[in-house]
Fold these 3 entries.
Entry 1:
Amino acid sequence: MWSLSSEKEVIGKTVVRVFSTPMAGAGGGTQGAADVAALVQEVEDSIEPLSCDHNLAWWNVNTEATEENERQRAETALAYSNRLADAEQFEAIVRARESGANGPIGRRLDLLHDLMLPHQVPASLRERIVELETSVEGRFTRHRGVVRGDEVDDIEIKRILRESDDVAERREAWEASKTVGAAVADDVRELARLRNESARALGHRDWYALSIAVSELDETKLFETLAACDKATAKPFARWKATLDRRLAERFGCETTELRPWHYADPFFQETPPDGAVDLDPLFRERDIVELGKQTFAGIGIDVEDTLARSDLFPRAEKCQHAFCMDVDRAGDIRVLMNVTDNHDSMDTLLHELGHAVYSLGFDGALPWLLRDTHLITTEASALLFGSLAGQRDWLVQVLGLDSAEAAALADKLRATRAAELFVFTRWVLVMTGFERELYANPDADLDDVWWKLVSRHQLVTPPDGRRAPDWAAKIHVALAPVYYHTYLYGSIVALQLQDALRREAGGIVGTPAAGRILEERLYAPGLAERWDRLVMQATGSPLSVDSLAREVSASH
């Protein structure tokens, strides 16, 4: 069992005094510049091993939810937080930023400031947050719903919702998917209160505002973009869903007004159901999903063999039921956690997670550790770009081996399905972003009511009659990836712009090494050396724009 070394425990818990006197030459003197560079390097060097230790512990607890692994996760999280909380180093960074440092050193100072700022709160508060996060994470990993007396995992619940015509079974499966929410809801509210306490101690309105501020986004512009996405998708989504609802009502022998959440094909209606799209699942039965993933990236000149070899890809008990990619050390140890099965969703998810992985594989090796990282928006753009390939004609023919004539016959339906995927997911993101803003505005509000009002408004789903349950808490992101969901929508938009650029400059993506080179050179290699918005301009030739989303969803009618 991996554990912290005693040396690293000391580093994590001891204050290292760095530049406790004002730095000379503020504004450009040679000695001042050297001092700033030394400060940045020393802080980075102290953070790097603790970050790696924390990542490994986090990986371990998600692959096996034992008490020992949960303890290690909490210990390493605290050691890492303690280092980032070093008030003296943080003050030195603030002074260095005020000295007018620019270029690569200025960029690293900005990133260190934003990384350390949320930790500049009392140790007791940080410890309580870590303790609760660890506890909630363990419960998510271990939890299984019950359907007809048997414990079932998320894969089985989604299978029932996609395939079963038994409405009673569907309802039981949907309700089983929400039981984890009741198990963690009180602690999720408490996490929101504690995070707010931290944010307000640092002069921010709440945790939502702080999170946006330290991720190089502007909250006003964010919600202007979300409003534009709402406007672009509302009408086409309503038309598409009306058609879907008629099909579902016919399938289940009821009126459209009687449809409830369990009539849709996943627990949160965040994915396009087979009834409203091309059902590609039969094409993936008994296919080697992992091998198809390797072939996809080999076709653009990127080798993912080593990443897959160190990954944990198949379902089992005591393992996280979700999917993620982790760059453990920013030096090549990149891993994917998944629960692979032989369907389209699993193929999409594997390509998505490998889209994160190849971003980290593509960093310029000369970058300092701090810059060998991804911005949340651009890494999601890479992931969503590749995940979408599993439903595109070129990939189905060249990688999956679908007959060209069959693929040609599906072409129009595939385009319409892609449009539906975009507006279904956009409407879901609007629910999540709206809910989290309300959660941090008032963690003690009637969140059950807030949740279902947002679902009704954005997804046009009728709540279960008389439902009073913390269904919102069943979404793991609310507890453990707070204020993150908007990055998926921004990433979707950037992915569309990348797709356009690659078609224009490389002739496509699938089987096109030139596309891989463009991504590596323009998007991946710079790491965090550039802000996300500049990377988008560099990689796509235009700033982020909702126009690309509006154009794509118009394909639905």
Note: DSSP finds 23 helices and four strands in the chain.
Entry 2:
Amino acid sequence: MKNLKYLKFIFIFSLLLLGCNEDESIQLIEPNHRVIVTSEMNFENTINIGEHIDFADLSRGIQSRLWTFPSEAAIIGGENGNTSSKDVVKGTFTKSGVFDVILNQTFNGNVYPNEDSTEPIQGRELDTTIVVTVLAPVEASFQMNYINEDGTTGAPLSLNDNAENEIVASKFVRITQNSNGSPTNFRWSLQGAKTEFLEVVDDPDAETDVRYTKLGTWDLQFVAARTRPTDSDTIYIKNFIKVIPSTEPVTLDRVYEYETETKIGLEFSREIDPATVVKEDFSVAIETNAGATIVPEIAGVTVDPNEGNIVIIELANEIMYNDDLVKVSYTPGTLTTLDLVASEAIIDAELTDFIKINLLESSAVDYSFETTTEKNWPYLGWGGRFELFDTTVSRDQARTGEKSLYIEMEPDGGMIIGNTEVDDNGDPTDNINFTVEKGVTYEMGIWVYIEDLGNVTGEANIRLYWRPGTNWGIGDNFTFSGTTPVGEWVYSSAIVSFSASGEASYMIRGVSTNTETMKIYIDDLTLFKLTSRP
């Protein structure tokens, strides 16, 4: 029994000894994995001149490495000026531009890249190029010019202190921003101008016209800046502009519905002095579609606090309807512009713009032709002259967005198209509808751009129909003649009503009694629900 216990002891000891020897023989294999980062990697490695950027080689399995910087840069603490074998290096650049920093690495074996890849690169030696963009300091710069009567750019203004460049009140100047150092944010303080603070971000090279309206001598401040790498520059010019009184009469340019059906906006050619506005000098007359005339009480007359050339008339206990004819009059009193020019009499100036919402914007109809193709506006098979046309969704002209529908109507031709969904083969399926109400008056309109009018010799027009239940006698939405403007967008509409409530879809019909091909674009279909006086 004692011998057996002794043998068991020897056996266990031997196992323990063998286990210890096996542990000592295990070899830990380090993976070869390339990982390179920079302190500005989230900002496209962009820095200012003189600032530093840190580079780190976090790779595994490295035998050797060598960083090489361009001659316009230096490694802080580098072993040989522009080279280093350290895993972390700090570099500075003395010149603006785009530069390459190269890291040469030798690994123990095939290496995995630092991208999300499960396959190793077949090679032990790799060169990695890191592009660094070095920006020069921001230098604010701009040019300001007078504007000639024909709208062209005139003489430059002096940018010196106390220049007191004279400008007649209500006139515009043109600003061209040309700052250096890649700024992305621009801030203007233009005292005496229509908009005292002007911010330009998206298109810094665009020309911007600014109107000066307030008499006096004014300073200018312009700041150009960027957020990263952070830098900015400021231009401040003392007594830059001197606004002098105008001798031109003030004009009423527009009468429109202002924000609600109880307010009227009067847009004058320049800013009005609020202290000269007297309610009793104004009157409003509303002619209804039934032939009656209403003279509403005026609750108040004020100047828009943000747009000083807008005078707001607020009616008391009366609202305006789209089928009203609204007229505004002013009896000469104290109404005066900020540049001390008195307003002349206003007699029955008609309100021309009611607040209207295009119902197609909330429908499935691609009213601006941005997301559909010509296949969504197929030919409806009327035959005869109505098949003598071609349509294409085009980017050549667009009133809004980027596209419009281009149409060519052949000599003595025409067109008829509807609005439908299409299947995978491009064949029409269901109509694309909008919702209408019976007994409601609508304005149905279209914008047309004429590229080539041809030689109109008779009937030439566009009509907007609908299905089902269209009014074939609706009349022309757009009529072409020898005097129709060419090369510009023109709006035309018709007042319509629908025979039943429910869903309707567009049909667009054209006629071209013409000895030549007519070429037009159409865009921005409209459907406005009009309010009617009960």
Note: The chain is about 5% helix and 45% strand.
Entry 3:
Amino acid sequence: MFHIEEELAKLPDQPGVYIMHDANDTIIYVGKARSLTKRVHQYFQPSHDEGIRKKQMVANIDHFEYIVTDSELEALVLECNLIKEHRPKYNTMLRDDKTYPYIKVTLGEPFPRVLFSRQMKKDRSKYFGPFTSAGAVKDTIDLVHKIYHLRTCNKKFPEAIGKDRPCLNYHMKQCPGVCQGYISEAEYRKNVEGAIDFLNGNYQPVAKMLEGKMQDAAEAMEFEKAASYRDLLQSVMACIQKQKITNSDGEDKDIIAIATSEEDAVVQVFFIRNGKMIGRDHFFLNVRVDDDAPGLLEAFMQQFYSGTPFIPREVIVQEELEEAETIEAWLSEKRGSRVYIHTPKKGAKEQLVELALKNAQMVLDQDKERIKKEEGRTIGAMKEIAELIGLPRIERMEAYDISNTNGFESVGSMVVFERGKPLRSDYRKFKLRTVTGPDDYGSMREVLTRRFKHGLSDRENAVETNSFTKFPDVIMMDGGRGQVNIALEVLADLQLHIPVCGMVKDDHHRTRGLYYNNVEIPIDKGSEGFKLITRLQDEAHRFAIEYHRSLRGKAQTKSFLDDIPGIGPARRKALMRHYASADDMKAATVEDLAAVESMNTEAAQAVYDYFHKDFDNQ
């Protein structure tokens, strides 16, 4: 039994993170503190006003735990990680997670490539960005390839030189023929250096060069070539115009401002890299009655910068932050060099903050209706379903489906919706092990048993939270009484108490109602709850069919060479290139086989034995 007064007396006067749980052991709030004893005590003092949101949270606290850290900075990092992992109900949360694209130049390769990337890794590559428009990044990469004639293939050089015929890019004069050895590494590197110079913003030499070539081609009456140079020149000029100079110091900065209303908030971020604004983005926040702008900005920065690989040297914010020093130290540690947080009062930086604020307010005003509509489709739809079947709330739903072709390669799918949206990271596939033939009930029994046994095992072994350890508030079965009873039997065997609901279909295979507690409940087909159930049902079906098709495809493309020990993908390809047919391979001696690229005597013997022990005995 947890006695709050006794546990409060045990709290240490040290920095750390405190975690509040409700009666269902769900984490409802995560916070950090310079002194755990002082901060946590405040929640339970009648005289201390934490605001409406915190009062509601305190009323739901059943027990709490805490983690002591060596410093306030460590507490901040841990708080960020826990909020991102558990998404507690009473913490201010970002409504969406975004990743930004980069342009990656693979300098660690002898013949580097220019690639699109969503991650910035610690490798020998050079990264440009992040950018806010994936389309603009792809257009820029295409332009770089056209101007500097860099390879786009993923072959490993110099090993692959001369192994295959040149590709279409070579014949179109878009690649200098690296695969044929037509260009030296040193000469190719000059093209790469030109591309890097271009990506750094030095457009003028390229524009001047293209303009000269266009004029030369026109004078020589080579009008197609002139038109090609003209198009490239126009693309370069478009790139130049997209780069808006904001200041002359060439620094990396993020400008952050927030617009709030009673229920909503929008954060606008301007991204300035090398003194140029490369783009902007906005984020929606959940807001409670007593949230203020500085607190919302702090919560946003902690979540945003814990998930982005790039940290600028300076972050300019609209409001003075109470935890500015701690957040500065945290960002500096992530960046590996000093980061500054400033709140300007006048000058060019203050004007940028004002511009970001105007944009945030505009998005907030324009998107209020859209936000409410989206919440109606998601959170509102979940509330509708909960009310329909008499549950206090539904946060997480899981749905299952079976797919097979006359019992061949039977598979099961598990899809998850949280707060009305697909949580694809928690989707799972099951290849049936114990059921043969088209037995949907037996297949569903196996899938559900494996899913919840796995979850119980992970919970017992204190495995890190994953899609199996998190159990749903309700299980939605694709069908009526039969499927529901199978699920209830599995849960009873495992001593689990989770509501199970059947999605009943009519004669036209359309959802007509929900089967719950032995009663079919009709649904208004125009309601958001009905639409959400349809999306869930369709997604479970799509995911199962997709997995089934992939297994059928693999089975159909399987080669007999896959069954020979020691023959992997590289040797399989080498043998298939060397021999025109299986009969030619069978006629070869061990010495002939060993002479094939990538083969050795042991592998050659395995291939020879396969043909002469298996084929001859058929």
Note: Residues 334 and 540 are 39 Å apart (CA to CA).
